[in-house]
């Protein structure tokens, strides 16, 4: 069985809005319809410690609300997302670092 090379998700953006922290993205070029996504995040005070987000593992939607997962709302965080399809996985794509209390994009 040939492995499909999944391209990474696009336009990966961490949004801080209405006291919610949401990672949003768009499907990669030529994605099969039943692709799912998995999200992790890291805090600026604990770099390279990527934390799993249990409610954003193998999800069909193209956003993940990270608010409840964050342990410290006063530290900047960034998130990453990868696409999963069968046994194929895309590379991770990271967002920018974002402050929970900053407004707008």
Automatic annotation (TrEMBL):
Residues 8-103 form the Fibronectin type-III domain. One of its GO terms (cellular component) is plasma membrane. It comes from the Eukaryota. SUPFAM superfamilies: Fibronectin type III. Pfam families: Tissue_fac. This is INLR1 protein. One of its GO terms (molecular function) is cytokine receptor activity.
């Amino acid at each position: 069985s040939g492995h499909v090379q999944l391209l990474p998700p696009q336009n990966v953006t961490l949004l801080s809005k209405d006291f919610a922290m949401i990672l949003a993205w768009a499907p990669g070029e030529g994605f099969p319809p039943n692709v799912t996504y998995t999200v992790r995040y890291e805090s600026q005070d604990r770099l390279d410690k990527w934390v799993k987000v249990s409610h954003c593992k193998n999800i069909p939607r193209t956003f993940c609300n990270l608010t409840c997962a964050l342990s410290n709302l006063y530290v900047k965080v960034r998130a990453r997302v990868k696409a999963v399809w069968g046994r194929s996985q895309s590379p991770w794509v990271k967002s920018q670092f974002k402050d929970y209390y900053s407004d707008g994009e």
